[in-house]
TrEMBL record:
Native source organism of the sequence: Parabacteroides johnsonii
Compartments where located: Cell membrane
Keyword Iron in record: no
Source organism superkingdom: Bacteria
Protein name per the record: Lipopolysaccharide biosynthesis protein
TM regions (residue ranges): 14-35, 47-71, 83-109, 121-138, 150-167, 173-193, 213-235, 255-273, 293-315, 327-349, 356-374, 380-401, 413-435, 441-462
Keywords on record: Cell membrane, Membrane, Transmembrane, Transmembrane helix
Family of this protein: Belongs to the polysaccharide synthase family.
Keyword match Transmembrane: yes
Length: 479
């Protein structure tokens, strides 16, 4: 009965996670197209330069305690309460520090406009610090339906405001205020859906108990943010803001696709893997099924996105963004593998191996930084290419440590992952030759998408894919 309950919870979480991701990315696509047509690459570049500061402040306000709450077997009011007051305090401190550091940031990039822009944009993490504990509770309780309502509502309201501001000539201020409003709406709705409320008593005990695990997650996240924003920093410092904008736009399209896939499974994988972490064989079975599911979705979606990148960019945001296409295509290759990499890390976290998560991320970050900086003079394309290659190769390192937890060999992992990747590549090659004579760009995009989707489904049916059959049966039952 317990197994069935876990399966139902996981299936429900995947369904609502997929629905959430799908709606979010449709809204992101809708608002992103309007904003990209209204704004210039330089406007996106101005926001992109501040990404690393936003990311680091967000990590510090959470300090790994959000993940620690999710991973905790037994949890009490005092645990949530301590994390709430800690996150709020750190959020306030970070905002004050960055508020007064704004002139230094502007000086580093040689952009005086960044002083006021950063002070407004940084309100985002100050506001979001009020709902860190509430967000952890939503994930812990697998309240994926409520998360869907929260995130979609916040995105719709903030996106509408962003378009109105951009249309009226507010340039990059439209993106900044859109970001702040998104945080405000999201925090308000988390308080609405989560009935838990903080009390004025503050205890250090729960934080001490979670400190060892949480601090490693915090440092890991810091390095992850540095890795994720290294291009924006280097391009912003040594190139023009247009180059930052092209990178930001290309990476944004990849992120939309990746977020849909990881949003489907990311809010479910850690709680479920933690629940079965005491039974190695059972966790191995759950992990391998998740591995097959995410590969089944990720490879055709992300490689397909790279395949139609040129047509998609020209049709949606105009040819002024064409320089972002090569970046988008390379990042999509990494985006196809990234959900699998994240799934590996969730296995380590479910076993409390936050130290391995930390050390691997630090070493990976150092390797990435050295490689990317060494290619700085060659331009953004070779920098991104090196970044993608290093991250894909690092999958073998993640696998080595996960194998020690759930006893899955590289051959078994390859059997779960590679078939979907190979079939996706075959499908895209066939589609390329079938559609290469089509000159109309609109017809070309539609034909590529429909033909590739049909062919991939046909191959899944032909190879009698269990994941394909179970996914199809699940949605038939939903209807």
């Amino acid at each position: 009965m317990a197994e069935q309950t876990l399966k139902e919870k996981t299936a429900k979480g995947l369904f609502w996670g997929g629905l959430n991701g799908g709606i979010q990315q449709l809204l992101n696509l809708f608002f992103g197209i309007f904003l990209a047509r209204l704004l210039s690459p330089g406007d996106y570049g101005m926001i992109g330069m501040l990404g690393i500061f936003m990311g680091l402040a967000t990590v510090l306000q959470d300090s790994g305690f959000g993940t620690a709450l999710i991973n905790r077997k037994e949890i009490k009011h005092e645990d949530y309460n301590s994390v709430f007051w800690f996150s709020l305090s750190i959020g306030c401190i970070c905002y004050v520090v960055l508020f007064f550091c704004a002139p230094l940031i502007a000086s580093f990039y040689k952009k005086p406009e960044l002083v006021n822009l950063s002070r407004v944009l940084f309100l985002w993490f100050l506001i979001s610090s009020t709902s860190i504990a509430h967000s952890a509770l939503l994930t812990k309780k697998l309240m994926v339906r409520e998360r869907t309502k929260i995130e979609v509502s916040a995105l719709f309201v903030s996106g509408t405001v962003g378009i109105i501001l951009a249309y009226n000539g507010f340039s990059y201020w439209g993106i900044a205020l859109q970001t702040v409003i998104h945080a405000f709406i999201g925090s308000v709705l988390r308080w609405y859906y989560v009935k838990w409320r903080p009390t004025y008593s503050f205890e250090l005990g729960p934080l001490k108990e979670m400190f060892s695990f949480g601090v490693k997650i915090m440092f890991t996240s810091i390095f992850s943010q540095i890795n994720a924003n290294i291009f924006s920093v280097l391009l912003g410092r040594f190139y023009k803001e247009d180059q930052v904008g092209y990178y930001t736009q290309g990476n944004k399209w990849m992120t939309m696709g990746y977020t849909f896939i990881w949003g489907m499974i990311g809010n479910v994988s850690l709680p479920v893997l933690s629940e079965v972490s005491c039974d190695v064989k059972r966790q191995q079975k759950v992990f391998r099924k998740m591995l097959r599911f995410v590969s089944f979705i990720s490879f055709p979606a992300m490689l397909g996105l790279a395949f139609v990148a040129k047509e998609l960019i020209v049709i949606s945001v105009s040819d002024k963004w064409l320089p972002c296409v090569p970046v988008m295509q390379l990042m999509c290759i990494w985006g196809a593998v990234m959900p699998i990499s994240n799934l590996y890390t969730h296995v380590l976290l479910s076993h409390g191996k936050s130290n391995l998560f930390l050390y691997n991320t630090i070493i990976l970050g150092i390797v990435q930084l050295v490689v990317v900086v060494s290619l700085l003079s060659l331009g953004i394309y070779y920098m991104v290419l090196a970044f993608v290659v290093v991250n894909i190769l690092w999958m073998f390192v993640w696998h080595y440590f996960v194998n020690k937890c759930v006893e899955i060999s590289i051959v078994d992992a390859a059997k779960d992952i590679l078939p979907f990747g190979l079939i996706s590549l075959i499908v895209l090659c066939i589609t390329y030759f079938v559609t290469m004579s089509i000159s109309n760009i609109y017809l070309l995009l539609v034909t590529k998408v429909l033909f590739a989707a049909f062919l991939y489904s046909f191959f899944m049916y032909l190879t009698n894919s269990v994941i394909f059959k179970e996914t199809f049966d699940f949605f038939i039952k939903k209807k």
